[in-house]
From TrEMBL:
The keyword tRNA processing does not apply. SUPFAM superfamilies: Family A G protein-coupled receptor-like (SSF81321). The chain crosses the membrane at residues 6-26, 38-64, 125-148, 168-192. Its main location: membrane. This is Bacteriorhodopsin. Keywords: Membrane, Transmembrane, Transmembrane helix. Residues 220-242 are annotated as: Disordered.
Amino acid sequence: MIPSTDLYFGAAVVYGVLFVAFVAWLRRLEGDGRRLCALATGLVGLSAVAYTMMSTGAGMIPVAGGVVDAPNLLDDTATYAGMYGLAAVLAGPSKRWIVAVSGIVAAQRLAFELPYAGIVGGTGALAAAGVVVVGWFVISGIFAGPIWRAARNQPAKRRLVHWKCRNLVLFLFATLIVYAMLALSGVLTEFLNTSLNLYIDLLMRVGVTSLLFVNAGSLGEDDGRGSTSSVVSPAPASATGE
């Protein structure tokens, strides 16, 4: 089988190429869309750096009987919090809700690291898994509640982009949670574990970033159809875009 370090190096190359492509695309944008796309592009660049370090084995830190992969932990925490934060920003809610969803997903990633790095096991691992699963439902509730109410005051085009971005992030993170539970159970081989992780992470980073770039021209537009629009907006009931 292909060693994990080789897979990480391949991922670093892919992220590096995508980062350069997104930067070139970014130069053609302007306005609010450009600012949001720049933030997403920065997260892609961070992943390129993180996977380069992981391919060399750098940043492995012994902690309480376990080993923490610092580049992976920092990259995931920043990226997940950033992607959720961007999805929330599109709705224009108060800052406390943006901080809330970003903070919860960061806590989820840190909780997952405890059993994944071998720091806790047994009851501790179950508690960590509970934090990850419950956190997803809490975030879904925040998006369907206060954040969606704020989104209804946005222009219809921007609201639609938020709806798509929100559903994409929630769906991919739910998929990531399923993968995480399988990884903790030990049923996956090292190759399959690493490959699935890389694939889902790539979908989330590139999927959200591409969605923002494609719709960048609509993010600053006011088409006169905000909360008083007679057009029926997408319902918040679906957390996965159904």
